[in-house]
Amino acid sequence: GYLGRSMIMCVSHMISAALALAAGLSLPVVGRARAFRTPSRPISISNSGAAQRVLVTDGLAPAALDALAAGGADVTSRSLTEDELCAGALAAYDAVIIRSATTLRADALSAGAAGRLRVVGRAGVGVDNIDVAGAHASGVTVVNTPSASTASVVEMTLALLFAAARNLPAADRGLRSGEWLKPPARGSRLGSELAGKNLGLLGFGRIARGVAAAAAALGMRVFAYSPHAASETASLLGVTLLPSAEELFCTCSHVSLHCALTPQTRLLVGGEMLERMPAVGPDGAACGSHLINVARGGIADEAAVAAALHSGTLTSYASDVFDQEPLPADHPLLGCPGFIGTPHIGGATREAQDRVGLQIAAAVLAVLDGRVPEDGVVGVA
Questions:
Q1: How far apart are CA 238 and CA 233, in angstroms?
Q2: What is the pLDDT of residues 325-355, one digit of tens each?
Q3: Which one is catalytic: 118, 296, 331, 355?
Q4: Catalytic site residue 296?
Q5: Exposed (0-12), middle (13-18) or buried (19+): which is 2, by Cβ within 10 Å?
Q6: Among the four 236, 253, 286, 347, which has the fewest Cβ within 10 Å?
């Protein structure tokens, strides 16, 4: 009817306004390619010298492998064991490109740098599986792709927010097992709207800012905590910055993790933090408390999260990342009510994988050619 059409038009205008605002800030938001820090021209890959040897350990999009070869690189695709890395297997290569499956410690990097190794490329954002300080000490430059998967991870965050608020996985599993879990049926949970609720963002980087724009368009009140957040950027996005992580959890029934895993953030979200979360929104709805994690598994204390889910302190935990990956079959979270898990697929879209591959290929070959990449230099030797 007229009311339904009016509501759809209203939400559409809100989303358009949020996208326009974020685009004006050059911020990443879902569905607006030019809002990302990707090159405005096609990626140019060149190599003026002899063929450079590049090792790809964890796979890369075919287009990226082609781009490396077109840039003059001699590309080898194979995985290496930890023993092989420590024994100096990287010394035979000028560059290595890894994903999350490979860990590069200082001894592996120094052994590689004793030979030909000059560049480590991380096809993705997080570099917690690379000893960046060790690379720098060995004269090895580290590059990554900080903006390539932003749209995909923003969308993944939204998907987990919706799944948690409406208990979608449990409803799907019930249907498949012959249960009609429509409230007030036994075993069902009445969902809640995201509109009118407080969303807290722990971290305020590219992905968090994209989530903020989309969540605001849905009618959520958005708060954030990050020691590095710019107040002007937050103000333009309509985000309220809070002075501490503790206050963020006290304020928000829905919290999404977007910070890096560091010694300071490891196990930051534990039982005491979860107990601070309100289960009622500012609109008066008993929405429960929901934690979303698309950052790194070690930020949340998974044992404390499991205990909070069992006790009812936390209504749901929707996570794409875990402290140990793949997740062990006997992990305590797998037996918890309200747990929603996915196997680290936030950036696993065709579009993101192509961007990640092409951008890391460009960055690695730029360094090998003596040039500075447009984006993503983590540590310069």
A1: 9
A2: 999 999 999 999 999 999 999 999 999 999 9
A3: 296
A4: yes
A5: exposed
A6: 286
